[in-house]
Amino acid sequence: MKKRALVSVSNRTGIVPFVKGMVEQGIEVIASSGTKQFLQEQGVSVLDVSEIYQSFAFRSNCGETMHPDIYRGVLADRGNAVLSSKDLVPIDYVIVNLPIEEEVSVTGVEPFTQLLDRMMVDEPMLLRLAAKNMQQVAVVVDPCDYDKLLATIQAQSEISLEQKRKLSAKAFRHLATSATLLAERLTNCVEEESPETYTVTYVKQQQLYSGENPHQKATFYREVQKVSESIAFAEQLHGKELSYNHIVDADIAIHMIQEFDEPAVAVVKQSSPCSVGTGQSVFEAYQRAYEADSISIFGSVVIANRTIDAETAGKMQELFLVAILAPAFSSEALAILQSKKNVRLFTADLTRKSNPRRVITSVEGGLLVQDRDILRLSETSITIPTKRKPTEADFQQLQLAWKVAKHVKSNAAVIVKNGMTIGVGAGHLNRIGAIVVALRKAGEGAQGAVLACDAFLSMSDIVETAAKAGVTAIIQPGGSMRDQESVDRADECGIAMVITGTSHFKH
Question: pTM value?
Answer without folding.
Answer: 0.85
